[in-house]
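Handout, section 3.2

Students often ask what a structure token actually looks like in practice. Rather than define it abstractly, here is a full record for Putative DNA-binding transcriptional regulator YafY. The first block is the sequence as you would receive it.
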Amino acid sequence: MANNAKSKLKTLYLRQILEQETDVDHGLSMPQLIERLTELGIPAERKGVYRDLNTLREFGVDVQTLPRRPVEYAIVHRGFTLPQLMLLVDAVESCRFLTQAQARAITTNLTLLASDHQRQQLARRIHVAGRTTGAASGVFEAIDTLHEAMRLGRQVRFLYYRVDGAGKRRPTQSGRPHQVTPVGISYADNYYYLTAWSDTHGNLTEFRIDRMGKIEVTDQPAAKNETIRHHRFQEDEYVSFGRFGGEPATVTFAVAPGKTEIITDRFGKSAQLFPQEDGSAKAVAKVRVSPQFFGWVAGLENTVRIAAPEALRDEYFAYLKGLMGE
């Protein structure tokens, strides 16, 4: 009876065999397919397997015949190509926000989309400096709750935490919860952020989701206004440093010889470069001026300096004097 039950599932088992053991570079011959089915306790013969292969094709599975001796059969095209899976695995492995265990769990699931042969090439490990050691599962649950509130059109209530001088997490507002309308979620600088409308303050504000706790979806309808309606997460032509924005400015940098990559790494192709006779360069880029921007320049010492505009140089010098308490 057991073999008879398996025989009814022969087409599905055949698909499983092809998915696990074949790809664009590896196929299985007809004798090998019959052998694999027999090992599973499923009686099979050539004509029946041909019928099953055609059934899979009719269902939309990309079973192709590889012109080899003997002829082989393989599932060539999958949901993701091998390079795409490699890219996804590398992206997950490189994410500082995930713990090592979480990254491995996700990449393990991704490798199930590949054949056994391809899976060996996906066994990649990328060392990530500064990877989080705390569990991020709470953040993922928080994101699910926030998305559910947006889907239902409801406000959310939560506690927001800051770290005090002793290094302990303390709720803000003396422990009173925040209540806001969630507008959108973004990811930047290895953190998730909630953009929300606050009726109390009458504007949009941002909360780091890993600092939020005890999130609840309320029965109160989400606020509706023109600011929320027209809010869009857009790429800014002015490069921001951190999440603090700042006034836009077109800045000319003086770049030391051999240090041009500092500019291209930070600003990409949007920066204009002008080589100088002494091997140095002038670079023009659009930035949003903030203390974080000045901190970036200061950290580069003399390899990259603000050359213009003069008013921005004065502002930078004032920032440095402020750090010295002058």
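Discussion prompt for tutorial groups: Residues 46 and 216 are 60 Å apart (CA to CA). How would you have guessed this from the sequence alone?
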